């Protein structure tokens, strides 16, 4: 009984001891588990903080580098913008200078075009006047040739009389009236063959040429000589009856050629 009681007491004591041991173990285990959990949490937090710190440091370094690059880029951009502005201002000044030069050139071209047109008009006017002058010169030349001394019958008759030709020959050469040739010979004292010689020549001419066939020109010359002889006789008769009426017979042109006209004093002697 005592053994049973002792055994029971021992068992109960053992149970109490085991219970206490188990409780102690459980408490220690629980305490270690909490410590491990705290250590794990703290370690994780420390690792996270270290990672965040490293990331922050790297990010700060990268940001500082980027800020420096941004500052350099900003300075470069500002310099580029400044250079671009200066270049733009320079180009604008050049464009304005070119525009001014273009306006000046345009005005100069317009002025030169107007001057060229004026010169062209003046040249055309000068050419027209020159052509008119050439036409007038040609007309004057023709008139001068027609009215030249060499072509004037009176001057030719004077020269032929000076060479010693007879009045009939001069009449035949110049086709002048006989009284003008006679007057020309008397005014300038040209010596001509006597009328008897002329008459004999006129009278013998048909006899000498009676046997020779006469051409139209010979007949015309013969008729001219006949009329010339008649005019000479008429002029001699008029001179015998009225010696001062000779100047009424000749024309003004003949009088000037004879040297007795109003304009004879202005003519240079040949």
Please give a structural write-up.
By secondary structure, this protein is mainly alpha-helical. It has a domain at 149-266. Helix content is 81%, strand content 0%. It contains seven helices and no strands. Helix 2 (153-162) packs antiparallel against helix 3 (167-174), helix 2 (153-162) crosses helix 4 and helix 3 packs across helix 4. It is rod-shaped, with a radius of gyration of 77 Å. The N and C termini lie far apart (214 Å). The model is unreliable at 192-216, 241-250 and 262-270 (pLDDT under 50).
What are the main properties of this structure?
single chain; mainly alpha; disordered C terminus; 0% strand; 270 residues; 7 helices; rod-shaped; 81% helix
Radius of gyration, in angstroms, nearest whole number: 77 Å
Q: What structural class is derived from the secondary structure elements?
A: mainly alpha
Q: What is the chains' assembly state?
A: single chain
The helix content, as a percent range, equals over 70%
Calculate the terminal CA-CA distance, rounded to whole Å. 214 Å
How do the helices and strands line up, and which of them pair or pack?
Blueprint: H1 2-146, H2 153-162, H3 167-174, H4 178-187, H5 195-208, H6 216-241, H7 252-258
Helix pairs in contact: 2-3, 2-4, 3-4, 5-6
Please summarize what this structure is.
This protein has 270 residues and is mostly helical.
């Amino acid at each position: 009984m005592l053994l049973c009681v002792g055994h029971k007491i021992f068992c109960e004591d053992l149970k109490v001891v085991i219970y206490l041991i188990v409780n102690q173990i459980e408490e220690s285990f629980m305490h270690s588990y909490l410590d491990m959990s705290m250590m794990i949490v703290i370690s994780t937090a420390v690792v996270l903080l270290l990672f965040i710190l490293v990331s922050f440091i790297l990010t700060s370094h990268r940001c500082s580098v980027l800020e420096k690059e941004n500052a350099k880029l900003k300075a470069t951009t500002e310099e580029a913008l400044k250079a671009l502005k200066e270049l733009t201002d320079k180009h604008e000044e050049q464009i304005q200078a070119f525009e001014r030069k273009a306006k000046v050139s345009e005005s100069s071209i317009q002025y030169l075009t107007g001057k060229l047109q004026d010169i062209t008009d003046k040249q055309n006017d000068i050419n027209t006047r020159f052509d008119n002058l050439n036409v007038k010169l040609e007309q004057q030349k023709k008139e001068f040739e027609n009215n030249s001394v060499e072509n004037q019958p009176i001057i030719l008759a004077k020269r032929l009389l000076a060479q010693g030709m007879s009045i009939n020959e001069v009449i035949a050469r110049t086709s002048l009236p006989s009284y003008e040739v006679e007057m020309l010979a008397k005014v300038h004292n040209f010596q001509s063959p006597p009328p008897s010689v002329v008459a004999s020549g006129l009278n013998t001419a048909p006899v000498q040429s009676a046997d020779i066939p006469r051409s139209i020109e010979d007949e015309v010359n013969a008729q001219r000589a006949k009329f010339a002889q008649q005019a000479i006789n008429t002029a001699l008769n008029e001179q015998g009856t009225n010696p001062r009426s000779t100047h009424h017979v000749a024309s003004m042109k003949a009088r000037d050629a004879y040297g007795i006209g109003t304009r004879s004093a202005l003519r240079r002697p040949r």
